[in-house]
Amino acid sequence: MKLLLVIDMQNDFLTGSLSNQEGLNIIPLVKDKILEYLNNGDEVIFTKDTHDENYLNTSEGKMLPVEHCLKGTWGHDICPLLKPYAKAIIEKKSFGALEEFKAYDFSKYSEIALVGVCTDICVISNALILKAMYPETPIVIYEKLCAATSLENQKHSISSMQACQVIIK
């Protein structure tokens, strides 16, 4: 069985405080990939970037001083087109979900694929965490189903992941 991890397809990253046109462009493509996985009997898990009112006082908040994905807000929600498929959700307190991933047994999957937003922050960090945790499991990035903060950052992130033996499709 394969796993598709849908990284942070939340309102704040798509139409809210950290909106990105590239992120908006991939929403229907991500939906198609989700349906493909579900139709094949594979699993889909979403991640949600999750912060509280103290965000601006955190290390991340000091480096990226834009409140986003505050728990309980509209911006924290999965975007409307994908929300019906978000049956399993991992709420992560930072861009990388090391602690949260420890609670899951990802070893049962023959492959773990990632799609989503912030290729240069959230997608790359989670892909590399999973590669370190499960070095023999293929970790796959669907490049056209990811969006970074800029096209240049997308290119650099994909190149960095490929150098770390993450499979780029």
Give your account of this protein's structure.
This protein has 169 residues and is an alpha/beta fold. 36% of the residues lie in helices and 21% in strands. The protein contains six helices and six strands. It has a six-stranded parallel sheet. Helix 5 (119-133) packs parallel to helix 6 (151-163). It is globular, with a radius of gyration of 15 Å. The two termini are 18 Å apart. The mean pLDDT is 95.
What would the keywords be for this entry?
6 helices; alpha/beta; 6 strands; 6-stranded parallel sheet; globular; 169 residues
Biggest sheet overview: 6 strands, parallel
Order of helices and strands: EHHEHEHEHEHE
Q: Strand arrangement, largest sheet?
A: 3-2-1-4-5-6
For the secondary structure, the number of strands is 6
- Structural class by SSE content: alpha/beta
- What is the percentage of strand-forming residues? 15-25%
The stretches of 5 or more residues where confidence is low (pLDDT under 50) are none
Principal-axis shape: globular
Gap from first CA to last CA: 18 Å
Q: Helix segment count?
A: 6
Mean pLDDT: 95
- Provide the helix percentage: 25-40%
Radius of gyration of CA atoms, rounded to a whole number: 15 Å
List strands and helices in order, with pairings:
Layout: E1 2-7, H1 11-14, H2 21-39, E2 43-49, H3 59-63, E3 89-92, H4 98-101, E4 111-117, H5 119-133, E5 139-147, H6 151-163, E6 167-168
Parallel strand pairs: 1-2, 1-4, 2-3, 4-5, 5-6
Helix pairs in contact: 5-6
